[in-house]
Amino acid sequence: MRLTDALRGEHAILYEIFAGVRETLDESDEIAVIRTAVALLERNLMSHAAIEDEILFPELDTHIKGMGPLEMMRSEHQGIDEYLEAIRNETDVAQLKKQTGQLLELAFNHFQKEEMALFGMAEQFLSEDELTALGDKWASRRKVDVQGQSCMAAS
Ligand SMILES: [Fe+2]
Ligand SMILES: [Fe+2]
């Protein structure tokens, strides 16, 4: 499987987590309840961003280093980190809800840009073999067994 397709699949699950956090914000004013929802989001969002930072973006540096889309994605990852840090330290429930809402908006818009621009650029600049080799790195990192045709042919 191509890395870009694996990342699109991760986005789909993360959109569900975004929706769950949004529901929690609508339904609760309890700091502990909101923190629990954000902790699940943080764990999943950070591991997803780490895969992009460590497996995808370095490959794109060869082709589009310093160019707008790649550097914008990196700086938005940083922005997401900063929101999560601020949220961890926030003790006022109204501020916590506001910042969490802003984080959801930033993360959603970031995902849309990756899907509409960056992943397409990756597929333009990297070959199918390169994308599949990166997909194998993703599978090993996520500990899933990808039984693609190449695996079947090799056995
Ligand atoms: Fe990202
Ligand atoms: Fe992403």
In short:
This protein has a single domain (about 5-155), classed as Up-down Bundle (Four Helix Bundle (Hemerythrin (Met), subunit A)), CATH 1.20.120.
Report on the structure:
- The protein is mostly helical.
- The chain has a single domain (3-154), classed as Up-down Bundle (Four Helix Bundle (Hemerythrin (Met), subunit A)), CATH 1.20.120.
- It contains six helices and no strands.
- It has helices at 3-27, 31-64, 68-89, 93-125, 128-142, 149-154.
- 23% of the residues are buried.
- The mean pLDDT is 94.
- Bound molecules: fe (ii) ion (2 copies).
- One fe (ii) ion binds next to helix 2, helix 3 and helix 4.
- One fe (ii) ion is lined by residues 49, 52, 73, 77, 110, 114.
Mean pLDDT reading: 94
The CATH topology name reads Four Helix Bundle (Hemerythrin (Met), subunit A)
Distance separating the two termini: 17 Å
* Count, helices: 6
Number of domains: 1
CATH architect. name: Up-down Bundle
Present the secondary structure layout.
Layout (H helix, E strand, L loop, with lengths): L2 H25 L3 H34 L3 H22 L3 H33 L2 H15 L6 H6 L1
The protein binds fe (ii) ion (2 copies).
What features would you highlight for this structure?
155 residues, mainly alpha, elongated, 87% helix, binds fe (ii) ion, Four Helix Bundle (Hemerythrin (Met), subunit A)
